[in-house]
Structure formats: C-alpha cells, structure tokens
Amino acid sequence: MDEIFDKVVHFDFIFRILIFAYTNKQMQLKGINEGFQDTDLKQGIVSGYFAIFGNKDLDGDIIEQGAFTKTIQERGPMGKKLIKFLIDHDKTKVPGVITELYEDQKGLKYSMKAGTHFEGQDFIKMVESDIINQHSFGFKTIKEQFDQQAKANRIKEVMMFEGSAVKFLGANPETTYIESKSFADYLTNLEKFIRTSDASDECIQSIESLLIKLKPENSTSKDKKADHNKIELKLSFEKWKI
Questions:
Q1: Alpha helix locations (H) across 76-133?
Q2: What whole-number distance in Å separates Cα of residue 58 and Cα of residue 49?
Q3: Over residues 25-43, mean pLDDT
Q4: pLDDT band at 138 (very low <50, low <70, confident <90, very high)
Q5: Which of 193, 221, 185, 198 is nearest to 209 (CA)?
Q6: DSSP-derived 3-state class of residue 43
Q7: Taking the complete model, does pTM exceed 0.70, yes or no?
C-alpha cells in the first residue's frame, strides 16, 4: 500500500508541474504605468488598476470593457479565488490576497489586503517608500478580433491568472516614457530605502539588485553624462513633435 501511495503522490506531483509549465507557457503579460489609487497602510489595504480599457498599446492590442467579466466570476475573490496578487509576477512572493476585483468605466480595479508575514510587511514598506508604483497582470487571451479601422487587435475576453504590483516596468512598451528627472528620483528612493528601511534582508537584497541593474557601477561619469544628454535630447524631440 505504501508503494502504491508513493506512486500516486509522485504522479500527482508530476501532473502539477506539467500544469504549472503549461500555464506559464500560455501566459501573457501586460503592464501599465499606473500607481495606487487608495492606500490604508496601517490596515495593510491598497487598491489600484491592473488594466486600462480602450488604450491601444504597442503590441497593437486594445482591452475592451467586459473582457474580465467571466474570469472574475469564475476565478476572482467571489469565485474560486484563483487570481493571485504577486510582486513582479513572482509566484514565491505573495504579499496578500485580492479582496475585490471588478471592472469600472476606466479599467480593471482591485483592492487587496496585505498579510502580517514578511512578504506582506515588506510590500507595505515598499508602497510607503514609492518603490512599488506600477501594475501588471498575467493572462491568456480567450476571444479577440482584429479591428481594421483602428489597426488594432481588440481583446474581448481573457483568463486572468494573477495581478502584480511592479517595482519598475522601465522600457516595457506598455508603459509611458519615464522622464530623466522621474527616473533619477526613483533611483534616489531605492538608495534611501536600502539605507533606512527595516524591511527583511531578502527585500533589501532585491532592491540592491534592482539598483545595480538600473544604475551600473561600471559606467563612467562621462558615459552617464552622455546618456543624460541623450535622454534630454529625446525629451526635447518628443515635446517638439507634440
């Protein structure tokens, strides 16, 4: 009996891995440069938007209102509770649970409650320090239709797997252009967080790694000045086009 039980457990484990791999292979990601709408950090409650309706992104997609209706009913907080709240799409970083998920005229809005564990408390500290200020979500397209007039793919129904609060979308095509001053302010926030925060060691290390990626130590001051001038030139050109 023990041998049979071990085999059943083994096959169940393999099956779960295959499902996990298949889901991740099918999953698409979209992000928006949209911060939090409301926060009650003492209670560990935050709200915001995972998606915005009617905007054509650089993938040529437009998410239509109603695209999340079925997945919210089936997988949302009032359904099977399968839509998770993550940090940076990392399945090992679950700071809390989604308590509300619904569509309004603007987009897909949510509220979440952070837990009292390390991940939950680290998340609240990063929100408070403006380290996390963008959103993204993982999904699979179920129904879509190409709009010849708009030259866009209209997404009419999705299966949503998770919504993420994101530290830095950066050059992600779905985000708006980040001005040099805003980027410099963000780097300053990262440095201050590393120096002063009482977050967990793991959280501090992740912020340090992000800072290294965004601000390479091997770049010379001359290179940095040249890059800064390029950014200013791009900004001037964008303003001229408008």
A1: 118-128
A2: 19
A3: 85
A4: very high
A5: 193
A6: coil
A7: yes
* 222 and 107 within one domain: no
CA angle 39, 155, 92 (to 5 degrees): 45
Inside any domain, residue 2 = no
CA-angle at 175, arms to 171 and 176, nearest 5°: 100
> Which phi-psi region, left, alpha or beta, contains residue 89 (left: φ > 0; alpha: ψ -120 to 50)?
left
Rounded CA Rg of the chain = 21
Instruction: Indicate the SS3 state at residue 197.
Output: coil
The residue range of the domain holding 124 is 29-166
Does residue 3 belong to any structural domain of this protein? no
Query: 3-class DSSP state for residue 86?
Result: strand
User: In this structure, what are the phi and psi dihedrals at residue 175, rounded to the nearest 5 degrees?
Assistant: -100, 160
Distance, CA of 82 to CA of 98 (rounded, Å): 10
CB 67 within 8 A of CB 201: no
